[in-house]
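Reminder to self: tokens first, then the designed residues, so the page reads top to bottom the way the pipeline ran.
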């Protein structure tokens, strides 16, 4: 057991297995952990991410043959979000690719570092003659883990811990700090940062963050909070989506594919599917009225009294005071802002309206690091408090005069 895992056990975390790694599922209060990520800061252990690196002059060309994004578009300290497809054009995993001087680092939530290396090496064997300058393909997740800081004020805490450069770090860029790597990237719409280091380094960073984070109302948690945030801000989740489709076109994830960069695994299959036109597409839904408990998948969706598709997932969203989810619909009716749909459950039928996603406007959009602060009384906390704060400041000036 490494030092970070031992720390979780000592502090009463409920542990579980994700991507072949033991990590916290929650710290006893999943609902409060969800609230922290939407309102303050949630600190979680993301060491279930597979980590691998590829080094050498030709490594970007090698990766470009494997992933759907154009790796040539990023430079040192930049990152890109992409997919790996199989030969049939179906999603294997999503991943981040970081350009870090003379190497690329791959981070995958659903594949181990060893599995990533196997896929890279398979492509390399096919193109070895054209890519002689590959120095290393190496899994790193046996020695490295990851912490995840997420929430509207995570930038402020990390700026306090690791310097002011964190506050200005753009989305999908990274920096080195305390012999660790800090990446700004996330899938849920909030300010989000991933800290990569050895397990000893991360255990120390965890404890430092708890002490410094108390004034930010930081909460420690586990990955169970993802169930709610990924209902509201959907992303690739194989356990939820794969039973219905792994096709990026049907899942409306084709924006992650760069067809004009040249060949990559699955490209021709996806293009053929595009030419034929998909028979079904995933779309968001909103169900107003009485709160809906988490629904079992595969319930039938009707349109004008005819079967039109199946429910993927749905549950109640407190932010909207409505239930939200996703359905897989026949393509001819898979458009946003259409009503006349009925979700037919075992005992009840509910009116459904299709919707674009994400469903909510994240609170992080209301927070500007250049103007706001959670702890500095000289600045408002967010845009919602800004007018009230200005009025208070003006009152103080008048009284001083």
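Designed residues (401 positions):
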């Amino acid at each position: 057991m490494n030092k970070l895992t031992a720390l979780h056990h000592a502090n009463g975390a409920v542990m579980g297995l994700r991507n072949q790694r033991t990590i916290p599922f929650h710290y006893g209060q999943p609902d409060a952990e969800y609230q922290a990520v939407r309102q303050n800061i949630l600190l979680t252990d993301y060491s279930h991410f597979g980590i691998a690196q590829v080094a050498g002059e030709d490594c970007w060309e090698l990766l470009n043959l494997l992933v759907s994004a154009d790796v040539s578009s990023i430079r040192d300290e930049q990152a890109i979000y992409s997919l790996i497809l199989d030969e049939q054009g179906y999603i294997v995993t999503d991943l981040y690719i970081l350009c870090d001087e003379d190497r690329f680092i791959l981070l995958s939530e659903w594949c181990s570092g060893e599995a990533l290396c196997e896929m890279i090496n398979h492509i390399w064997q096919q193109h070895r003659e054209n890519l002689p300058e590959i120095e290393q393909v190496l899994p790193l997740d046996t020695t490295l883990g990851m912490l995840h800081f997420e929430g509207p004020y995570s930038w402020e805490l990390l700026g306090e811990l690791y310097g002011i450069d964190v506050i200005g770090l753009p989305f999908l860029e990274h920096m080195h700090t305390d012999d660790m790597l800090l990446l700004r990237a996330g899938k849920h719409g909030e300010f989000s940062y991933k800290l990569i280091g050895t397990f000893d380094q991360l255990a120390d960073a965890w404890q430092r963050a708890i002490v410094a984070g108390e004034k930010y109302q930081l909460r420690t948690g586990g990955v169970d909070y993802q169930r709610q945030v990924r209902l509201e801000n959907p992303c690739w989740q194989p356990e939820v989506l794969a039973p219905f489709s792994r096709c990026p076109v049907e899942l409306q994830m084709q924006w992650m594919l760069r067809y004009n960069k040249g060949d990559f695994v699955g490209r021709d299959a996806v293009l053929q599917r595009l030419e034929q036109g998909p028979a079904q597409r995933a779309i968001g839904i909103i169900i107003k009225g009485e709160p809906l408990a988490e629904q079992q998948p595969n319930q039938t969706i009707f349109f004008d009294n005819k079967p039109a598709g199946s429910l993927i997932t749905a549950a109640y969203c407190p932010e909207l005071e409505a239930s939200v989810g996703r359905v897989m619909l026949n393509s001819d009716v898979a458009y946003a802002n259409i009503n006349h749909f009925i979700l037919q459950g075992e005992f009840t039928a509910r009116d459904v309206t299709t919707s674009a996603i994400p469903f909510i406007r994240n609170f992080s959009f209301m927070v500007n690091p250049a103007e706001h602060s959670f702890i500095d009384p000289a600045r408002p906390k967010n845009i919602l408090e800004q007018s009230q704060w200005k009025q208070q400041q003006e009152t103080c000036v008048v009284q001083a005069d």
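The chain is about 25% helix and 30% strand.
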